[in-house]
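Re-run with default settings, no changes from the original entry. Doing this only to confirm the output is reproducible before filing.
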Amino acid sequence: MMRLTEVCLSRCPSILLLGLLYVTYVLIGGVVFWKLEGGLGQKDLGLLLQSKERLLVTYTCLNQEGLEAVAQVVHDASKVGLSLRGNYTTDGFWKFTSSAVFAATVVTTIEDLFLMAVLYDVRIHPPLQWSPLPLLPPQGHETLTDYSLAGYGNMSPSSTAGQIFCVFFALFGIPLNMVVLNRVGKYMLVIERNISDFLERKTRRRTCTRFFVHLVSFLSGAALFFIMPMLVFQQYEGWTYAQAIYYCFITLSTIGFGDFVADSNPDKAFPEWYSVLMASWIFFGLAWLALLINHSSDILERLNNHFKQRWGGQRPEEESGSAEPETPESQVEEEDEIQKPPIPQ
């Protein structure tokens, strides 16, 4: 019986075991955050209702609609960094110094995604790796932002226990996340390389084939991770198409300002599958965007080699395609063996 179990585990792709461990870890985190922070949410709701009733009793000239209008004005002002306290207002977020900090934040968060891709040395030939995210319960957005590079800032633990748990949860979850993303990235790139090699053998036109594979990968990814989500967000969130596209890029590029956050409007009722769809979209969308960045690097590198060959008299390095397509699992395991350090004598 023990031998049979070992055989089954050896035949089971490692990515399935890692995926199961990953999803289990995220779901456990979601449950813990829900238990630690959910009670505080009910308490905050009770305090809010009491404050609302007290305001309506104190200011009898203010009815329900008037109170909501005042609250909306205060909410809109706070979103742009303005305050209505006293007889003066602040200058808002967009002063010169804060604007410069904002610009630095944008480019450094984009750089984080690029460095993450470079860290795993993603290339279509040979295939290596890159990055994606998890499946979450409807109330589990804390686990999503703990793992990812994109933190919206609209949701965070407020209890001491929740904050301490968040530190340790992220401490172990981030390495697990990178391992899973590394493995998923390898599989996706191996599949893309096999398609490219197959077409090269059929057409005997290597350059055109690779350009075609890059183009199809870009167009299909743009449709899957930008166009389709844009339509979904326009319908369920009520955003314009421009706002939806903006949100898609800000999220997948890991910037995450928090000015637009899907599945967070308290005035809307979202279906149960919406959060799961959101998490899946971010997971694989982050992977695709990292792949796109490395496709661009791959194209620039090939152009550099072409110009060196043409004007520098250097011969291009020979690239050998695989004789016959391998399975993604075998190629991933082979790369792992190659990347292992030599055993000291």
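The CA atoms of residues 82 and 121 lie 44 Å apart. Residues 4-9, 118-149, 318-325 have pLDDT under 50 and may be disordered.
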